[in-house]
Amino acid sequence: MVTAVDKSKVPWWVSNLIVPLVNLTLALLVSALFIFIAGENPFQAVKLIIYGSFGYLDGFAYTLYYTTNFVFTGLAFAVAFHCRLFNIGGEGQAYIGGLGVFLVAINVSFLPVPIVWLLAIAGAVVFGAAWAFIPAYLQAKRGSHVVITTIMFNFIASSLMVFLLVDVIRDMKQMGPHTVALPKEIWFPTFKEFAALFGIKIRYSPLNISFLLAIAASFFVWFLVWKTKWGYEMRAVGHNTQAAIYAGISPYKNIIIAMCISGGLAGLLGINEILGVHHKIVAGFPAGYGFTGIAVALMGRNHPIGIFPAAFLFGILYQGGSEVTFDMPNITRYMFVAVQGVIILFSGALENLFRPQIESFFVNRLNRKVSV
Amino acid sequence: MVSPILELKNINKSFGHVQANKNINLIINQGTIHGIIGENGAGKSTLMSIVYGLYQADSGSIRVSGKEVKLKSPRDSIESGIGMVHQHFMLVENFTVLENIILGFEGELVFGHKLKKAKEDLKNLCDTYKLNIDLDSVISDLSVGFRQRVEILKSLYRGAEIFILDEPTGVLTPQEVDELFKILRSLKEEGKTIVLITHKLNEIMDLTSEVSVMRQGEVVGHTKTSDTNKEKLAEMMVGRSVLLRLNKEDAKLGDVVFKVENLTVKDDLDVTRVKNVSFEIRSGEILGLAGVTGNGQTELLEALSGIRKVESGNIYLNDEKVSDKENLLDPRKLKEKGLAHVPEDRQRMGLVTDFKAYENLIFGYHDQEPYSKSSILRDSDIITYSKKVMEEYDVRPRSPQLITSNFSGGNQQKIILSRELNESPKILLVGQPTRGVDIGAIEFIHQRLIDMRDKGAAILLVSVELDEVLSLSDRILVMFDGNIVGERINKDVTDRELGLLMAGVA
Lengths: 372, 506
What we know:
heterodimer; A: mainly alpha; ABC transporter involved in vitamin B12 uptake, BtuC; 16 helices; B: alpha/beta; Rossmann fold; 2 domains; six-stranded mixed sheet; globular
């Protein structure tokens, strides 16, 4: 039997700060071992990661650009998870969300720019939500498990988009599977343009004002889940469906609401990628952010305050990792996929490996202090 | 001459920093029935799990017949002659009695003459102790009482000298209890030793010759049963004096406020569990619904509270039809009409145990003012309110921010009660209000229900505790196999009579 710790005695900072930090440290130690085995100096690699992600302004901007994407997909996963739905369809929902952004933006581009932006955001949310609605409906009405249906919907989304990008909305003057570009006026202002306003000249980076949208979305999720009756009902359904029914809360309705909000948040990835970076739909633009978002949410304990730093950490790994692969010939891009995997393993699957020990250690220590 | 068969010395066991057993010293004499009594969470079950080898003590020693033993697993205990009948039976449902008994010890028993020999031995055991079990019947066909006997037979066959019974009567009808007690007495006559764990004082007085009382992980008292009485034992258990009888005046009956007409309800497996049931409740009355678990009470309560579909029949609230086959008023609308429901299973239904206490205190009322306004929860108002009701209902600890699963069973129940009673409902459906609740809280909860009645509420009390139904109700219905098989005015009924009705005999 595992020694049971009285959870009420565990200070919040132990379970929410110390435990994740220990897990992260272990993951990094194991990763360092990988790098060592690959024949490179782990300390050198850490130096490169830090330099790459913080060392110069446009590198840091890249880090924040990745962070933006992870915040969206991490929040998406977290909202559904509070209703105990494992939405692993963020990838597909983001893809379709991007379609929404493009279709709306190209058709209303004659309107004033801020209105185009708002409508495009609405397009992202509606399309992403719609893509999540079908699995949600199947789960609520038919009991088809969302894990199965959402992952299948990722493939459907991918195939559908390839079909559209090849045969329907492709830029016919070009060879590649992408659409025409949106008019320049409605592109999101980039960090580079902002910096230029203050007379700072930097090189191009994809960071744009979507970052602010990510902050707003984080606040929105916090407010929704903990401060409104909808969030309350979603959590009730998630924790105890029987009790929810007893209290007159409809599981059916809440499963659909939670999944649609989740899909809508995933769809916002399309805003960053299309209004902010590519300015058109490029095949495969979600590039795995949807999946990494699951790890971000788990690591951030499904709370915006945790998701933001977790997203930032993955941003550092993405950006710093590419720096390492430039400078260290023995380390490939895949090496960093493995490092991510190790982090996910330690902060997700092995989350409870050391938790009981750490918690009881602190509980015992604190109790001793009190009794002395 | 009495000689100790089981001696426990300075047993300590803690889970994390919670000490479940503190320095326990206990001597159990051969050929006696020894009662161990205590409230829920007093550490009785932990102690017996240590004796049965399920847990290991942190320190202390155990001697069986004077010899020190190390009990690392149930197998060690069985070899030392200790047998246990658990609260939840450990039987394979689709095996026969014989198969269950030899399970784990089958070796070469499965075929041939050894099996025949085993069967013969078992038959002899059955005869000696009047167990009356058919060895070839399948467990799933047996009633709960018989399953318990199978457990006893199993221990007997494995050579047990000491039998530990953990709350053995919780699931039995009064008649089955009588039968069980007969068997236990005959075991004792044959020189076996029985350790009876219970929180029911009657059983201790009836059956045991010695009794040990546990409170908060310690043995706080040890006496011969003949030297004590119920009041003294209850006082020792709780640590203060307890009212065993309720102060209750006669009911002042008002109008009929709740009426059920020819109600039929099915369970999730489409089996009809409530069959054509009709009754009515007046304001100012507590109607008790007695019955052994699983005779349709659960489904009835769920249908009445708007959770389960009605197959046929009607439910009226103040002469207004609220539910029938076509329409089922949902729980929230029923609440608005003044119907509150304390569900039978608080952790499965009444609470979200992962929520903080204050979130559970508004559960089901969360979209009403002042708890929320335009869909936004008003935390500060909710917490002020929570502090108030936690004070009023003496919920301990009084911390609205604490996660609900950290409260004890009794305090969780108080959270539900305070929530459901606070709105002064006109009709109150209560299921097993004191299941798993300690004596101190039982007293409190019963008094609250009586107060509600005196304020004019109509109360339907569903309980498998006959004592509870008898001490609270003004009128009693007995449910058996989905039917109401009897209606009695509380004053002129005996528990004997109710017991027969509950067993479907009368």
